[in-house]
Specification:
This protein is about 50% helix and about 5% strand. It has a domain at about 75-170 and about 180-269: Orthogonal Bundle (Citrate Synthase, domain 1). Strands 1-2-3 form a three-stranded antiparallel beta sheet. A hairpin with a 2-residue loop joins strand 2 and strand 3. It starts with about 20 loop residues before the first strand and ends with a helix. It has helices at about 40, 50-55, 65-75, 80-90, 95-110, 120-145, 160-165, 175-185, 195-200, 210-220, 230-240, 265-269; strands at about 25, 30-35, 35-40. Helix 4 crosses helix 6 (about 120-145), helix 6 packs parallel to helix 7 (about 160-165) and helix 7 (about 160-165) crosses helix 8. It contains twelve helices and three strands; from the N terminus they run βββαααααααααααα. With about 270 residues, the protein is mainly α.
């Protein structure tokens, strides 16, 4: 390549790395959609289970299929004792994302079929991790506060079960709806830094867990554009609650969301 045409691009700013049929975001409008559904139309009306199904299968499931899907996820929430032992070994002041990253890596090491990267096995792993990550995060939060982890309750929804495992109390409908909305807003964000990190790893034909660990490592960074601390402060300030009064808060990750973000209105509207 000649000096006249050679160009070095630092980072990925302005680089079209891929196209996504799953999500679309335009911060200048602002606009965020999942599979063609505007976030403002689904964030406060659908559940996390419905949106997860939508993202994976490109459609909102009918009631009977949703019940089966939700029951399937609920049945996958428990984690092996070895994972809890790993979390117990973490320093109490350890970064929550470091604990999650380590636990997911351990799950990969324990999966006898981790190297089978067929679509069927990857969907099975996606279901497992979607169900198990809240168990891991809640267990770590309790251990860091000197409390014992609480086993998941398969009779509760995904959002309600997380709140229960974190606090030991079954949440009311308002709390469950609020947390469902938060989970939906974070369910997809097109090709951000952590998604790109995952894509790099799967591009080498490495295993599913390695890709997720890479994504967790990326989202842990304070410059990632879609983490949570500042968002939670904005939300909680708007309703008069300190983030430090929440069980397990602060979350230990950073974000720069503005009030004109497409995710902001569903949190406060």
């Amino acid at each position: 390549m000649s000096e006249a045409t050679e160009q070095v691009i630092s980072g990925l700013e302005g680089v079209l790395a891929c196209e996504s049929s799953i999500a679309y975001i335009d911060g200048s409008v602002p606009e965020l959609s999942f599979r063609g559904y505007d976030i403002h139309d689904i964030a406060q009306t659908l559940t996390f289970e419905q949106v997860t199904f939508l993202i994976w299968h490109d459609r909102i499931p009918p009631a009977d299929e949703l019940r089966a899907f939700s029951a399937d996820l609920a049945g996958r929430r428990a984690v092996p004792k070895q994972i809890i032992d790993v979390l117990r070994a973490m320093p109490t002041a350890g970064h929550p994302m470091a604990g999650l990253r380590t636990a997911v890596s351990m799950l990969g090491a324990m999966d006898a079929h981790a190297e089978d990267i067929s679509p069927e096995n990857n969907l099975r792993r996606a279901k497992d991790l979607a169900a198990q990550m809240p168990t891991i995060v809640a267990a770590q939060a309790r251990l860091q506060r000197g409390q014992e982890p609480i086993a998941p309750d398969p009779s509760l929804s995904h959002a309600a079960n997380y709140c229960y495992m974190l606090t030991g109390q079954r949440p009311d409908d308002t709390t469950t709806r609020t947390f469902d909305t938060m989970l939906i807003l974070y369910a997809e964000h097109e090709t951000n830094a952590s998604t790109f990190a995952c894509r790099v790893v799967v591009g080498t034909e490495s295993d599913f867990y390695s890709a997720v660990v890479a994504g967790i490592g990326a989202i842990k960074g304070p410059l990632h554009g879609g983490a949570i601390d500042e968002v939670m402060r904005m939300f909680l300030d708007s309703i008069g609650i300190s983030i430090y009064g929440l069980p397990g808060g602060p979350c230990g990750v950073r974000v720069r969301w503005r009030k004109d973000s497409p995710r902001w209105r569903p949190l406060t509207g």
